[in-house]
Amino acid sequence: MANKKFTVTWEPGTFGHLLQAIIAIQCYGATYDKIESDSHSQPDWPGTINTVHPYDINLIDDGHEVIKPYFKNANLKFFPMYLNYVKTDQKSTPVELLRLYWNYHDLICPKSFNIDMTNFFTNVSMFKKDIQQFLDTDKLLDDTIYFIDEKRKVNLPHFTDYNEKILHTSSCCKAKTFKDMSNLTDYEIGLVLCDYLQGEVHKVNVFANAYNNELITSTMDIIRYEN
What is the pLDDT of residue 43? Predict the structure, then answer.
């Protein structure tokens, strides 16, 4: 293990820093005094953990053990954007987000162990097994398991909020039913639009061209642009 060199490559919001930390704990004995939902602040540790962020296959060292996180579940396609928003307070208008992400896809890396981060939230035992497989170890250290469990605990509220604020609201749009959206920010409304209109270039253009920064307070305010 000591002779192995690792690379973590990832797109924003997919928990690349989390995987970097897991490797550091399991392989190099790193310790964390405080575990928060945001993983951008990392301690120093021995060993080599390279990062390629954002993902670029041309920058990956073929001599490294490479891991790339992604969300396989289509319902979580825009969850990384939500995580970046809540952890870094990003700002954007609904139409700006829609134009940027309407056809977003997080690519699988052919040089990498692609780990489905959906399991981090919905099947943590499987997630731990995937980590074991990548690191080629029969057992995770107690410190590694504790770190994973604690990280999951502090990130679960974001997962719950995303399901309620974004996915449930988008599903109401698809069902043409009313839901109050007055508590959502512009960024959250933009993510609802991305999920609702994803991949539908004509519908995206119709909405983006017709919308003139009017207040959106319910799903009806989105649906009416289709008529």
Answer: 56
- CB within 8 Å of 185: residues ≥ 6 apart: none
- What lies within 8 Å, CB to CB, of 191 at 6+ separation is 78, 81, 82, 85, 97, 166
Q: Which residues are registered as beta bridge partners of 65?
A: 6
Residue 135 forms part of a structural domain: yes
Q: What is the pLDDT of residue 190?
A: 97
Torsion angle of C-alpha atoms 50, 31, 160, 12, degrees rounded to 10: -20
The number of domains in the chain is 1
Residue 125 structure tokens = 């035992």
What domain range includes position 111?
Answer: 6-76+105-155
Tell me whether residue 13 is in a domain.
yes
Question: Does a structural domain hold residue 100?
Answer: no
Task: For tokens 């959906």, name the residue.
Answer: 118
Query: Is residue 116, in this structure, part of any structural domain at all?
Result: yes
pLDDT at 47: 63
The list of the chain residues with pLDDT below 50 reads: none
| Whether pTM exceeds 0.70 | yes
Q: CA–CA separation, 22 vs 131, rounded Å?
A: 9
Is the Cα dihedral 155, 106, 122, 16 positive or negative?
negative
Q: What is the pLDDT of residue 96?
A: 95
